[in-house]
Structure formats: structure tokens, C-alpha cells
Automatic annotation (TrEMBL):
It comes from Tumebacillus lacus. Belongs to the ribF family. Pathway: Cofactor biosynthesis; FAD biosynthesis; FAD from FMN: step 1/1; Cofactor biosynthesis; FMN biosynthesis; FMN from riboflavin (ATP route): step 1/1. InterPro entries: FAD_synthase, Riboflavin_kinase, Riboflavin_kinase_bac, Riboflavin_kinase_bac/euk, Riboflavin_kinase_dom_sf, Rossmann-like_a/b/a_fold. This is Riboflavin biosynthesis protein.
Length: 313
């Protein structure tokens, strides 16, 4: 997959004709996948590459109107990985700035987008663009038609009476509902990170853990204990992971991620790993003795093994 960074809006490079999906696509959930999949399908029919036009950083981060997007469901590298899996051949990444946000709808279509030579556009029904985000998908279709570019508008995908959206997924993550998030994403929610040295308390308790430093600003599920699987050197391992502040030992607010890999022994320090969240076990709690904590961890491991039969790990 080719990734083309666009930092100069006046760039006159010879861009390749393609069928293009437009959107920010944080999460690349099942709604996004349907939209991108339609662009891939149309591109195949026309014998053209399928492309995506997206933005970095997240527009809401630049415009400062949403703290929720300071942490992303799919930071850049993860987004590119998933897009490639979906069959996207070219990704245009626009460096999003206040100046870009100030383009009128007409300037966006005629002064910028048309120079990328899209032979077709695919957008969601709720797509917004132009200064202040005041132009909608219908206006895009009308303006693009004047430039000779056909536009297909894709409808919403709903689950349980709600529109699937990045906002909904963030909400479910905040509840710790890993199973529902997996359904909405079409894959387990994942965090990539590096194993770092911790307090080594888990080893003393008989349950050695990998302390994980996320590689990017991921949106994390709520504090608690999860059934996860961990990818280490191209091999998956079942694990129990705790997200939280370790209240039994600390009165601090710093959140940490610690994974106890089941049936694994070895040195993981410095390894880049991928954690996929499969299920929520319980809330984080403070224990009044080390013995009580050990008994709970033992119970967590037993319950995790039972639930893992529902997943292919």
C-alpha cells in the first residue's frame, strides 16, 4: 500500500486516478469497513486502484473542540495496517491544519480534491466538510457532479438500535464492554506497546506480568481485568491483563497495563507486542492483604481459561 503525505495544498504532483473513500476513519469500524469496501469494489469494476483520503492529526485535535479525541481508537500506524488489510492501495494523508479547515466547500472540491483525480468518491451519509463543517454529503455530490466526479453516499450501519460510530465505540470502551466493541469494530480492540521494566511485584506474587508502555495515544478501556491475547514475535498467547492504578499498593492516578501470559515463560523486556481485548472479567479493586489479592488472581486465571474456549487464541 502506498502512503502519500500531503502537506502543501498547492502541490501539483501528478496524482494517479482512483476511486476514493473520504473520511477520518478513527476506529475503522464495521460502518467504515462497508464504506471502504464499496470503494474497493467500484475501483475493481473500473480497473483503478482504491484510495482513501484521510487526515492527520485528527481534525478535532487541531480545532480543539473535543478532548475525547486526544486518544485515538486507531492511531496512524494501526489505521494504515487495517486499511491495507481492507484492500486499499493508496492512502492520501492530508496534514490537517487550521488553514485547511478554513477552506470553503468549493475550494475543497475544485481547488484541492479534483487535483487528486478521483474517478469516483464514496462517503458516509453523515460526511461533513468545508469551513465549519457546514457542507454535507448531498452538497458534496452536487459540487462534485459539476467537476465530473460521481459520488456514492453510503448509509448508516446500525446495531441494537444505535448507529455504529467512533463515539459509540468510545462509550462502550469506557464501560469495558470488550465483546461489544469487538462486534462493532469487526475485530478485537487492540493496543500495541513495548514491554518495560516494572516493580516486579507480579513475579513475587507468583504471577509474572509484562508491563506495557503503549506506543501511541490509544483510547484505553476502563480500569479493570480483561481476558486478552498477546502477539509476541508472531505468536499469540492467551493472557489476563489489568488496566489500572494498582490500588492495593498505591494511592496514585497513573494508569498502567500489566499482562500475565498464561503458560508462558521467557524474557519479554524490550519486545514490541500487540494486545487484543477479548472480554471483561471484573472491575479493579483494592485488596486488604496480599493473600486476598493472590486468591483473586488465581480465580481470574481460572475464569479466563474458561472464557477463552469462546475465542480462538
Amino acid at each position: 500500500m502506498k502512503i502519500i503525505q500531503i502537506t502543501d495544498l498547492q502541490d501539483n504532483a501528478a496524482f494517479q486516478p482512483s476511486v476514493m473513500a473520504l473520511g477520518n476513519f478513527d476506529g475503522i469500524h464495521i460502518g467504515h469497513q462497508g464504506l471502504i469496501g464499496r470503494a474497493v469494489e467500484l475501483a475493481g469494476q473500473l480497473g483503478l486502484p482504491a484510495s482513501v483520503l484521510t487526515f492527520y492529526p485528527h481534525p478535532r485535535q487541531v480545532l480543539g473542540n473535543s478532548q475525547a479525541h486526544a486518544n485515538l481508537l486507531t492511531p496512524f500506524d494501526e489505521k494504515m495496517r487495517v486499511m491495507e488489510e481492507l484492500g486499499v492501495e493508496i492512502v492520501y494523508v492530508v496534514h490537517f491544519t487550521v488553514a485547511f479547515a478554513g477552506l470553503t466547500a468549493e475550494e475543497f472540491i475544485y481547488g484541492f480534491l479534483s487535483r487528486l483525480h478521483p474517478q469516483g468518491l464514496v462517503v458516509g451519509f453523515d460526511y461533513a466538510f468545508g469551513r465549519g463543517g457546514k457542507a454535507d454529503a448531498s452538497m458534496l455530490k452536487d459540487l462534485a457532479a459539476e467537476a465530473g466526479i460521481p459520488v456514492e453516499i453510503v448509509g448508516a450501519v446500525n446495531r441494537y438500535g444505535e448507529k455504529v460510530s467512533s463515539t459509540l465505540i468510545r462509550e462502550k470502551l469506557s464501560y469495558g464492554d470488550a465483546r461489544l466493541v469487538c462486534e462493532l469494530l469487526g475485530r478485537p480492540y487492540a493496543v500495541t506497546g513495548t514491554v518495560i521494566h516494572g516493580e516486579k511485584r507480579g513475579r513475587l506474587l507468583g504471577f509474572p506480568t509484562a508491563n506495557i508502555e503503549p506506543l501511541d495515544s490509544f483510547a484505553l478501556p476502563k480500569n479493570g481485568v480483561y481476558v486478552v491475547r498477546v502477539l509476541v514475535k508472531n505468536e499469540w498467547h492467551a493472557a489476563v491483563l489489568n488496566i489500572g492504578t494498582k490500588p492495593t499498593f498505591h494511592d496514585q492516578m497513573h494508569r498502567s497495563l500489566e499482562a500475565h501470559l498464561l503458560d508462558f515463560s521467557g524474557d519479554l523486556y524490550g519486545e514490541a507486542i500487540r494486545v487484543e481485548f477479548l472480554d471483561f472479567l471484573r472491575d479493579e479493586k483494592k485488596f486488604f492483604s496480599v493473600e486476598e489479592l493472590i486468591a483473586q488472581i488465581q480465580s481470574d486465571v481460572v475464569e479466563a481459561r474458561s472464557r477463552l474456549s469462546l475465542f480462538s487464541v
